[in-house]
Structure formats: C-alpha cells, structure tokens
Amino acid sequence: EPEVTQTPSHQVTQMGQEVILRCVPISNHLYFYWYRQILGQKVEFLVSFYNNEISEKSEIFDDQFSVERPDGSNFTLKIRSTKLEDSAMYFCASTLGREAATGTDTQYFGPGTRLTVL
Amino acid sequence: ELKVEQNPLFLSMQEGKNYTIYCNYSTTSDRLYWYRQDPGKSLESLFVLLSNGAVKQEGRLMASLDTKARLSTLHITAAVHDLSATYFCAVDNQFYFGTGTSLTVIP
Questions:
Q1: Cα angle for residues A4, B81, B40 (degrees, 5° grid)
Q2: Are the beta carbons of B45 and A107 separated by less than 8 Å?
Q3: Among B7, B34, B37, B95, which would you mutate to test the A interface (most chain A Cβ atoms within 10 Å of its Cβ)?
C-alpha cells in the first residue's frame, strides 16, 4: 500500500542552525501538508501546498519557514534559524484532492520527524 | 481564532464498557474529522463527517456530528485494549485540531 515517508526520523540541531525536513508524499497525490506536534500536545497545522504554491498557512508558519517541492517526489520543510521552541514532531501529509464527499481529502500522514533543538 | 476542545482529555475505562468522547468547536465548519494516534506513532484517519446528523461507524467506534450545536461525538462500544490511543478531532479542512483525548482501556 502506498505510504508517505519522511526523513530523517530524528534530527538534532543547535539553536540558530538551518534544518531541512524531507517528505515523499504518495505519488499521485496533489496536495501536501506540514503539521507539527509539540510533545504531548495537539497537532498544529503549518502549511498546505498545491500546484507548486502555498495554498494556506498558519500563524506559526512565519518567515523562518519555507516549503519546496524541488522535484517530482520530494516535499521539504526548511527552518532557517531554529529556536528551542521549534522542538517538536513534524508530520507531512498528502491528499489526492480536497473533496470530502468523494474521500479525496483523506489525509495520509507520514511517520514524522522528531526535531530536537539544543 | 477557531477553538476545538475535546473532553475528556484523559479517559481510563475498563474493557467491555461504553463511553463517549466529545469535540466542541467554536465556529461553523462543513466537515469534521476524527483521527487516531498510537503512542509515538503518526496519525490515522478514522472518519470524516460531512453534514448535520451524519453518523459513521467502524467496528466499536461510532462518530456523529451536530453542526447546529457545533459538537461531534466519538462513541466507544464494549471497549477493548486495542482501542487504547489518543483520539483527535479536526475541523475546517483539517487545519484545526482538538486537544486530543488519551484513551486507556484496562483489562
């Protein structure tokens, strides 16, 4: 069964460093998402991406964050200058479409990347 | 800001018992989603509810939606240990998640 993959599974970085989190969405999916989950807390939406553009973004997704689909398979999240509070689990998700009635908006989540900022 | 609140936050129940998890949201939303997250794992989609009065069932879980009350429920029937997980609801195109309910089913 197709699945979303993410690398690395765990990233440790020093405060102020740049990190790139990578995701490979399901191959025929068109919409891509990043979420984060601080340990023990709720899931927070960061950004959605469609047709090589950001569709929606949350207040969390400030100038320190960027997303890119550098090729036909990868979807990346870059944090330019990490802060301690960026420590969280980052989940990538993808959907075939955005129509709930047809089920194309069912999100398939990757296993996550645990980011630890020291 | 849209708020999505779940209660209870923590639920410990015995096998075989029934219980309901509630999800309240603060603004109109045309759809509501339920997810399951096992400890240390990713999220798994359970249900999407599209209209007022919608009800969906999968095994021992049944979800319903009351858009007028801005309330969704996830009912657990005859709980088994395998249902132990954290359950999240989400609204507004899945951009707003609830606080989560951590369910532990005790043998």
A1: 35
A2: yes
A3: B95
Q: For residue range B4-55, what is the model confidence (pLDDT) as tens digits?
A: 999 999 999 999 999 999 999 998 877 899 999 998 889 999 998 988 888 9
Rounded to a whole number of angstroms, the distance from the CA of B70 to the nearest CA of chain A is 18
Facing residue for B97 by CB, picked from A42, A48, A110: A42
Domain A5-99 sits in CATH at 2.60.40.10
> Amino acid letter at B80?
V
Question: What's the one-letter identity of residue B42?
Answer: S
- Could you tell me whether strands A113-117 and A31-37 are parallel, antiparallel, or unpaired per DSSP bridges? unpaired
Q: How many CB pairs under 8 A join A and B?
A: 49
Contact across the interface for A42 and B45, Cβ inside 8 Å: no
Pull the structure tokens for residue A92.
Answer: 């990538």
| Residues A69 and A29: beta-carbon distance below 8 Å | no
Answer whether B44 sits within 8 Å of A42, measured CB to CB.
no
**pLDDT tens, position by position, A56-106:** 999 999 999 999 998 878 999 999 999 999 999 999 999 988 877 777 788
- Name the CATH code of domain B4-106 (choices 3.40.50.1820, 2.60.40.10, 2.40.300.10, 3.40.50.720): 2.60.40.10
d(CA B25, CA B28): 8
